[in-house]
Amino acid sequence: MKSGPNAKASANKHDGCSPPNAGAKRVIAVLDLVIRVAAFIGTLASGVAMGTADQRLPFSTRFVHFKAVYDDLPALTFFVVANGVVSAYLLILGMPLSLLHFIRSGATKSRVILIILDTVMLALLTAAASAAASIIYLAHEGNSSANWLAICRQFRFFCRRMTGSLIGSLGAMTLLAALIILSGVAISRRRR
């Protein structure tokens, strides 16, 4: 047994109250919670922005009104629903489990469940964003082969809202991918 000041400092350092890498686990847990909150805000804002995007042109005929609404296109409806599902998941399940990891840093099974669910939500959000991106591209550029005209010259506000909503959703996709990587790092640190 060692004696002296170094032995006493070593004994206090590993006295069983806290593991040597408890600080790193706390940082990972806090970072996980912050990223989840940011992803929740991104998906909720994207869904609300797209869901409230509509524009009417100031001119119309007696029988025809020129308007653009998100629910006229099924791909944009899918985008709104998918953003709603992901934001509900993050609020109801993701953030409480993230708080659990902050309180109990040794919870590995719930971290594995979060990796699986985060991956499913990332796939859903990616599918919705890619469907919306194709519609937004057609709205901006049109398609001369199919004789579809670009509508963004007339419906500027609607197109800006759609594009901003898509950008928010792409940001949330990036954050979900970062959450999957962060959870993998957290699990690999527990196994050592």
UniProtKB/TrEMBL annotation:
Membrane topology: Multi-pass membrane protein
Keyword terms of this UniProt record: Cell membrane, Membrane, Transmembrane, Transmembrane helix
Membrane spanning residue stretches: 33-53, 73-100, 112-139, 166-187
Subcellular location: Cell membrane
Chief location of this protein within or outside the cell: membrane
Signal sequence, start to end: none
Cellular component terms per the entry's GO annotation: plasma membrane
Boundaries of every Casparian strip membrane protein domain copy: 26-173
Family: Belongs to the Casparian strip membrane proteins (CASP) family.
Subunit structure: Homodimer and heterodimers.
UniProt-recorded name of the protein: CASP-like protein
